[in-house]
Task: structure prediction
Amino acid sequence: MRLVTFIHQILWHLILHYLVPASYSNGHCCMLETPEITGISMGGDVLFGAVLPLHMEKVYPKLSYNEKPKQAVCRKLSPETYLQIQVVKFATMEINNSEILPNVTLGFQVYDSCSMLQRELEGTLWMLTGHNRAIPNFQCQRKEKLAAIIGHSTSTFSILMAHILGLSRYPQVR
Result:
């Protein structure tokens, strides 16, 4: 049992310190220099997040070992997941335009994981950070925290996300 715990701790150390590196602050409050992440978001009083695979294919760039590796390129948009995102957007707008939640608006943040563990980690940290950057152990939310987070339907991805969210006291990975 101790060996399993030790291996688990080493894996988390590797994930948090090597897959998503953070550098020193450039002097601005709540800003660390890391690659910018793009996602789909819509503001609201109550926010929910999702890290889902919008693309089905990925192309990895060749490694030169002389420079920082480039991100994989996502290709072939998944029609099913794209439709799910559109349904989420439509349902959120319909709820906001109705009297279902008076004086409260719903919002969301969605990140494309491209079915890669690294991108799943980046998307989770992007939502927790509160900025368009994935920074481990850093939170600078100017808005309310996310009320719920939806993860990948494959357990390998969801377990990684659940561990990270558990550290931040989030219970909503499917």
Remarks:
- The CA atoms of residues 18 and 120 lie 15 Å apart.
- The two ends are 27 Å apart (CA to CA).
- The longest helix spans residues 2-19.
